[in-house]
Amino acid sequence: MHKCIICIGSNYNRKENLLLARRRLVDLFPTIRFTSEQETRPLFFRSPALFSNQVAMFFSEAEEERVRKELKAIEQSAGRRPEDKKEEKISLDI
User: Model's pTM, two decimal places?
Assistant: First the structure.
């Protein structure tokens, strides 16, 4: 059993994307627990858009690579697109 600690962040459609992430994470990792959501200013970005951030912790018996793939799939389901990177739009980052 592995203890996993992740950070979830978004600066674009923040509320909707974090809600989507939380729902998908609970479905995949029922033991997950979330900290309170925090709003922060961006670091090292030209974009002034505020970020919503949240830390979560869960346990999983899956291999590390499998967990990473699941997390990336959640990011992509929120519409994370390569072309958004230039505009510094972060739909969802886990």
Answer: 0.84
pLDDT tens digits, residue range 51-82?
Answer: 899 999 999 999 999 999 999 999 888 877 77
Beta bridge partners of 33: 57
Look-up of token digits 């994370």: 80
68-87 exposure pattern, b = at least 16 Cβ within 10 A, e = fewer:
eebbeebbeebebeeeeeee
Q: What pLDDT shows up at residue 52?
A: 92
**Degrees, nearest 5: CA angle 76-90-42:** 155
Phi, psi angle pair for 75, to nearest 5°: -55, -50
How many Å apart are CA 13 and CA 49, to the nearest integer?
11
Residue 72, amino acid: K
